[in-house]
Design a protein that fits this description.
about 30% strand; 10 helices; alpha+beta; globular; two-stranded antiparallel ribbon; about 325 residues; Aminopeptidase; about 30% helix
Length: about 325
C-alpha cells in the first residue's frame, strides 16, 4: 500500500488520511486531513465547513489553528477536503477569545461544580424529590467496568423505545457488535454510570473526562421505567463521582441550539442545575463563498436561521408525526 500523500503549503505539512466517524448512529469512513495529530474533516453541505474530529471530546483545545488554516488552503488538496470555512472552538474554562478570527458564541450547558452539597442545595425542590423517590423505589446506581456483560445490558436497554425526545432513536435495535463499537470510544478516560432496579439496567450515563472538565456523552434513562426516576438518580451519582475526581465543570451538550430555545431536554438540564456558559467559537473563511456565507449567516444552518417560533412548531410537528407512525405500526402488527 502506498503511503498517504503529503500536502505542503509554505512549509507547513498536512497528511491526507481517513477518519471513522458516527453519523446518525452509523459508522462510516471519510477523508480527513491530519495536521500535527489533529484530524479535520469537511461537511458535504453548503457551505462546506471543515471541523476538528470529535472536538468536543478531545482533552485539549486546538493549539495552532493557523497551521490548520494553511493546510486547508492548499490548492492541491483532494476535492473531498476542500472547504469554504474552518471552524474550531475554545474549551472551558477558557471563555475569553484568544484569536482575531470571526467569532460567535457556543452556548454550553454546564454546572460550575464546587461541591455536591452546593449543587444539591441549589436544585429545585421537585428535582430533589425525584432523586429521593428513585432511592425509595429501589433504584441503585453504580459505576461499572466496560465489559461484554455491560454491552449485553445496553443492548437490552436500547430496545426500550424506537422514539426518544420526539424523534427516531438511532441506536434502537442495534446488535451486540454495533453497541460494543459505539461504546468503545474514549475508554481510559470515561465512566459508565448505571442505574439498576432489581438487577435490570434502567439507565446509562457515559461521562468523558477532559482534565478538570467532565462531559456527558450518553444519557439513556429507560422511558418505560420513568416512574422510578432513573434520570434523576443518574444525575445525582454523576455529580458525586465528579466531586470525588475534583472536576470543576460538568457539561451536557448545548444549552441553546441556535434559535431553538425550548425543549424538554433543556427543561431537564435547568432543573438539574445546568446553566448557560458562553465559549468562543471561531469561523475562518477559506474561499470567497465562505466569506459570503459568513456574512449571510449560512454557516449557522437551519436552527441558526429560522425563528424560534418556527423551530418550535417544526419540533412539535415532528413529534406528532413519529407518534402517529408508531401507533400505525402497532395497529399493523
Amino acid at each position: 500500500m502506498k503511503p498517504p500523500p503529503l500536502l505542503r503549503h509554505e512549509g507547513q505539512t498536512g497528511t491526507v488520511t481517513s477518519a471513522e466517524i458516527s453519523v446518525l448512529g452509523e459508522w462510516c469512513t471519510v477523508p480527513a486531513l491530519n495536521v500535527n495529530g489533529t484530524a479535520i474533516i469537511v461537511d458535504r453541505k453548503w457551505p462546506r465547513i471543515a471541523r476538528v474530529v470529535d472536538e468536543e471530546w478531545l482533552e485539549d483545545e486546538l493549539q495552532n489553528p493557523g497551521l490548520c488554516v494553511e493546510a486547508l488552503k492548499n490548492k492541491g488538496a483532494p476535492k473531498a477536503l476542500r472547504a469554504d470555512i474552518f471552524t474550531f472552538a475554545q474549551k472551558l474554562p477558557c471563555t475569553a477569545p484568544k484569536y482575531p478570527f470571526h467569532m460567535e458564541w457556543d452556548s454550553i450547558a454546564a454546572i460550575r461544580l464546587t461541591s455536591f452539597k452546593d449543587w444539591w442545595e441549589n436544585l429545585p425542590q421537585e428535582s430533589r424529590k425525584n432523586a429521593r423517590r428513585s432511592q425509595k423505589r429501589g433504584v441503585e446506581v453504580r459505576v461499572r467496568e466496560f465489559d461484554d456483560d455491560l454491552v449485553h445490558e445496553i443492548v437490552e436497554l436500547s430496545k426500550d423505545s424506537p422514539i426518544r425526545q420526539g424523534k427516531r432513536f438511532t441506536h434502537y435495535g442495534k446488535s451486540f457488535e454495533q453497541v460494543k463499537k459505539d461504546q468503545s470510544t474514549h475508554l481510559g478516560r470515561c465512566d459508565f454510570i448505571c442505574a439498576y432496579a432489581e438487577k435490570e439496567l434502567i439507565g446509562l450515563l457515559k461521562v468523558v473526562y477532559r482534565r478538570d472538565v467532565a462531559s456527558v456523552l450518553i444519557f439513556l434513562p429507560k422511558a418505560s421505567q420513568q416512574d422510578k426516576r432513573p434520570a434523576n438518580a443518574l444525575m445525582t451519582k454523576m455529580v458525586e463521582v465528579c466531586e470525588a475526581k475534583g472536576i470543576s465543570y460538568l457539561t451536557y451538550g448545548m444549552f441553546n441550539y441556535g434559535n431553538k430555545r425550548k425543549s424538554s431536554l433543556l427543561e431537564f438540564k435547568i432543573r438539574n442545575g445546568f446553566e448557560e456558559i458562553l465559549v468562543p467559537r471561531f469561523y475562518v473563511p477559506l474561499t470567497l463563498w465562505g466569506e459570503l456565507s459568513l456574512r449571510l449567516g449560512l454557516h449557522r444552518g437551519i436552527v441558526g436561521l429560522l425563528p424560534s417560533v418556527v423551530l418550535s412548531l417544526a419540533v412539535r410537528a415532528r413529534e406528532k408525526w413519529y407518534t402517529m407512525r408508531r401507533l400505525r405500526a402497532g395497529v399493523a402488527q
